[in-house]
Write a structure and sequence with these properties.
This protein is about 30% helix and about 15% strand. The protein folds into 2 domains: about 30 residues, no CATH class; about 120 residues, no CATH class. The chain is built from 7 helices and 8 strands, in the order H-H-H-E-H-E-E-H-E-H-E-E-E-H-E. By secondary structure, it is of the alpha/beta class.
Length: about 180
């Protein structure tokens, strides 16, 4: 694994597992391509959730547009977040959601024109408002008794106009409630 990536991820527990996984992926790169994932997706897939090691903010706008075009061209929506994109990844505006740490930062991101996600206190089960009065929609997948998952929800697709803010109640080490 590249030394810079390893240093950036050094705080993660289980880095040894990450090294082994990365080594296996490097040995079979065709199985870890976006094209392969799209071709082998389950037929019920409605969204591609772009998760990666690190922050998508390192991608150029052209690279992110190519990914967006490939996924949407396959008939899927795209769910992707970048931490503090409204501050550090402005070049990805409209392509990713800006992920924030609290309601004040969520207001800051929306003021800058971003769709955003934010962290909420544990146990939050009803919509809340930001300091500037914006409504925060709770992620349906994290609400008790709701069978929603990203694939059926799509609230975090950055191409959607609403809601401006999706909130994720902190779960700690527990699994999904319900």
């Amino acid at each position: 694994m590249d030394r810079k990536i390893k240093e950036a991820l050094a705080w993660l527990p289980g880095l040894e597992t990450l090294d082994a996984t990365t080594a296996r992926a490097a040995a079979t790169p065709d199985r870890y391509s976006l094209q392969y994932a799209l071709e082998c997706r389950h037929r019920s897939a409605r969204y591609a959730r772009l998760a990666m090691i690190g922050d998508p903010g390192i991608l150029s706008r052209a690279a992110m547009e190519a990914i967006d075009h490939q996924i949407r061209g396959a008939g899927l929506g795209l769910i992707v977040h970048a931490h503090h994109a409204h501050r550090v990844s402005q070049h990805l505006h409209g392509l990713v959601m800006s992920s924030t740490d609290d309601l004040t930062e969520a207001d800051e991101a929306v003021d800058a024109g971003w769709q955003t996600t934010t962290i909420l206190p544990p146990g939050t089960t009803e919509s809340v408002r930001t300091p500037r009065g914006r409504r925060v929609v709770i992620c349906p997948a994290l609400l008790p008794g709701r069978p929603a998952v990203c694939n059926t929800c799509g609230l975090c697709d950055p191409s959607r106009a609403e809601p401006e803010i999706v909130g994720y109640p902190m779960l700690g080490h527990r699994r999904r409630p319900g």
